[in-house]
Amino acid sequence: MTEDKSTMTPQQFIDELRRYQKGSVSRRHFLGVTGLGLATAVLGGAMPGLRPRKAHAALSGTLNFTTWPNYFSQENFDNFTKNTGVKINVSIFGSNEEMLAKLQAGSTGWDVFVPTNYTISTYKELDLVEPLDLKLMPNYDPAAQDPRFLGPGTIDGVTYAVPKDWGTTGFVVNTKNAPQNPASWKEFFDLAQGDLKGRVMVHDYQLTTIGSALKYFGYSFNSIDEKEMADAEKLLLAVKPNLFGIDSNYQPSMRNGDAWMSMCWTNDAAQLHRDIPEMMFVLGKEGGEIWTDHYAIPKGAPNREAAYAFLDYILTPEINAKEVLAHGAPSTDSRTNKLLPKEMLENPILYPAAESLSTLEFGAAATLTSPLRAEVMARFKAA
Amino acid sequence: MSDRQHSRSVTALLLAPAGVFFFFLLILPMIVVLVYSFGERAEAGGYAPAFTFDNYLNLPARSKAFINTLTLAPLGTLLTALFAYPMAYFLAVKVSPRWRVTMLVLVMAPFWTSQLLRYYAWILILGAKGIPSWLAWIGIDDVRIINTPLAVLIGAVYGFLPLMVPPIYVSLEKLDKRLLEASADLGATPWRSFLQVTLPLSLPGVATGSMLVFILLMGDYILPQFLGGGKVYFIGNALVDLFLQSRNWPFGAAVSIALVIIMFVTIFFYMRFVLGKSGQRRVAMV
Question: B226: distance to nearest CA of chain A, Å?
Fold first, then answer.
């Protein structure tokens, strides 16, 4: 093969992207050297749907975006606003149950939200989400998605949500303060009542908090069996007085040194480990959760056009790669993965070994609406 | 139309906006809450019509939240009053009138930034790198403040001081200085004058301020959420969880009704005793 200066490897691309993100090079340099500027101009001219100014001329107002803590690239959002004139108003939630409650109550004013795999069938049943018109988001390519994660968003052949990224639920340990080296949920909950008294956090979220307590006993993460739930509740009530806190936004407390161990999602673990190397991510050896978050548009979204424009923008591989670099949850899109640096694709936090994945379970829809799950969580918090 | 009839219709006309407001935004919603409290949780969450007392029978499941709120809210109010009184006294009696307005404005200044932002700041002040690390420096190790009831009390005093100071200030400011002169002429020490003249006459201000702070603390959920970190649980948090997580609206409605009744009874007796007493005292003093 001849050396062609006009092409670049994904690695080179990411290096340039990093330089641009850090502000070492200008946007013009970045677009020029990567060929993206030219490509965009050509593509933009050739594809009517992508012609930025004209297509976005109709857009205005605000896009209300509802998501999880520490879960997007501000730079991407700023650029969307710059290109379209649509301001993005971000709301942060701590649990899918909270999102469902708001949507059930009605009039949320949300345009795009980020539901997790196990909730989508319920949203569809309750008629709370809009079937997506994929023609309005040409940058999304179902064929490029990892087929493992395509199931939950598509119901009876209709797409209600598109995968954003995936990850696992384990726990993060500050190994400098907590050298005990726990490897299982059993050790997690035992340490929380023992050596790490007052230093451990759990999520303010029934699925993971109850699910992980169920794993302590070796039960299914998704159990709604009364006897098994009673065991989990007993464990949680015993642990409660010894916890540092119950919060799904645990990064501030972990960074501040108040908490030394916390239930943790892939993306938070990646961010914490990146900034503080002694923060280690552990998948409980009994198992736990594997999840896929999705983008969806609620029924009656006030700024539907902007919502589609946003989905189309954010699912563009180059933009999506910047999202992944910012939040650290692995993408479901193979086109995006090609743009990511090798060390990221080899990071065991993001891509755990296949054998540790095999014990993990996807959340089950029944846990979302189970009154028992809801009441056990509420009793645990009120104890 | 007689003058009397005329004045009556004017009164009715002037009260109409408030009446409509209270009917639609207070009484009607309370009726809805009451009706819901006898219902059942719908299958996917929410409300399903029914007539059951189960929600009220289940109230003991939230007893810890009621106990927490009913101890920490009065305690927080008391502490706030103890901090506010000297401040208000200083402003009303010691500070020259020229500086009074400026200083009153400074008392209110924290209200100009978001409450959430201020509580976030307290998370850092009370967290491991804040006060505990200074204490460790002088040899007092392993002090935990954040996510304890103490943190919530500190937040309450800080957050509600600006609401407590002005009413006390007003009652102290309009205090007739001649009463103090008379008290001194009759041989009372300054301390005795304070206890028997100033304090009783300023009690209505203390009562008003305390009422404001107490009502807000009883229904608060942000303060315990931020500085209690899920470990100090108020009725407000129980309500948020019931409506926004468990989606058990009927039980949430029953908890609300219980809270309203507790508030009503507490405030009724508080008004009777504190306000009633100080009113009588005032007459007796003069």
Answer: 10
Top CATH class of A167-290+352-382 equals alpha beta
Delimit the domains of chain B by residue range. 63-285
pLDDT digits (tens, 9 = 90+) for A88-147: 999 999 889 999 999 988 888 999 999 999 999 999 999 999 999 999 999 999 989 988
Q: Do B241 and A378 touch (CB under 8 A)?
A: yes
Among candidates B144, B230, B238 on the partner chain, residue whose Cβ is nearest the Cβ of A204: B230
Q: Dihedral of CA A65/A69/A71/A72: which sign?
A: positive
3-state secondary structure at position A245: strand
- How large is the average pLDDT for residues A233-243? 97
pLDDT, tens digit (0-9, with 9 covering 90-100), for B187-230: 989 899 999 999 988 988 999 999 999 999 999 999 999 999 98
**Residues of A contacting chain B (CB within 8 angstroms):** 95, 97-98, 100-102, 104-105, 122, 125-126, 198, 204, 206, 240, 243-247, 252-253, 256-258, 369, 371, 374-375, 377-379, 381-383
Quote the CA–CA distance of A177 and B142 in Å, as a whole number: 13
Please give the residue of chain B at the shortest CA–CA distance from A373. Answer: B246
Q: What is the CATH number of domain A57-165+292-345?
A: 3.40.190.10
Please give the Cα distance from B236 to B233 (Å, whole number): 8
Residue of A nearest to B130 (CA): A256
Which CATH fold would you assign to the domain B63-285? MetI-like fold (1.10.3720)
Of B35, B58, B39, which is closest to residue B48 (Cα–Cα)? Answer: B39
Average pLDDT for B138-164? 93
Q: Are B230 and A256 a contacting pair at CB < 8 A?
A: no
Question: What gap in Å lies between CA B180 and CA B186, rounded to an integer?
Answer: 10
Closest CB to A100: pick one of B65, B238, B247: B247
Beta strand A62-67 with A112-113 is parallel
Domain ranges in chain A?
A: 1-46, 57-165+292-345, 167-290+352-382
Nearest residue of A to residue B246, measured between CA atoms: A374
**B229 chain-A contacts, CB cut-off 8 A:** 244-247, 253
Q: What are the Cα distances from residue A259, in Å, to A262, A358, B30, B229?
A: 7, 29, 41, 11
How large is the ipTM?
0.83
Contact B244 A374 (CB under 8 A): no
- When CB atoms are compared, the residue of B129, B147, B245 closest to A98 is B245
- CB distance B126 to A253 below 8 Å: no
Q: Are domains A57-165+292-345 and A167-290+352-382 of this chain identical in fold? A: yes
